Amino acid sequence: MESVRDLNMDTDDMQVVLSAINSVSRRIKEVAETHKPLFGGEHFLTGKEVCERLYISPRTLQDYRDKGIIPYTQFAGKILYKVSDLAQV
């Protein structure tokens, strides 16, 4: 039979395991923050993301929306913009 070694927070093996867990945790958070789900095969952006991509202010984006320059979709009270529509602007 193999002997079982006690692991505690001071052992090198435990530090390696904890480091790996921290790395995975950080990567999961990064993906969660940057992942953009597909709706009907389309990627959507928020108003903030559109402003950053087009180098415009939120007020200008609202003007574009009001004038029909940039199409948008309202979903659950949130205004979203199709990436494919922005490529045509």
Gist?
The longest helix has 23 residues.
Describe this structure as you would to a colleague.
With 89 residues, this protein is α+β, with helices and mostly antiparallel strands. The protein has a domain of 50 residues: Arc Repressor Mutant, subunit A. 51% of the residues lie in helices and 16% in strands. The chain contains four helices and four strands, in the order αββααββα. It has a four-stranded antiparallel sheet. The chain is elongated. The termini are far apart. The mean pLDDT is 83.
Let me know the average pLDDT. 83
Give the fraction of residues assigned to helices. 40-55%
Largest sheet: 4 strands, antiparallel
| Gross geometry | elongated
Uncertain residue ranges: none
**Count of DSSP strands:** 4
In N-to-C order, the SSE pattern is: HEEHHEEH
Straight-line N-to-C gap? 70 Å
* Helix/strand/pairing category: alpha+beta
Which percent range describes the beta-strand content? 15-25%
CATH-scheme architecture of the domain at 38-87: Orthogonal Bundle
Number of helices: 4
**CATH secondary-structure class of the domain at 38-87:** Mainly Alpha
Strand order of the largest sheet: 1-2-4-3
CATH-derived topology of the domain at 38-87: Arc Repressor Mutant, subunit A
Q: Please compute the radius of gyration using only Cα atoms.
A: 23 Å
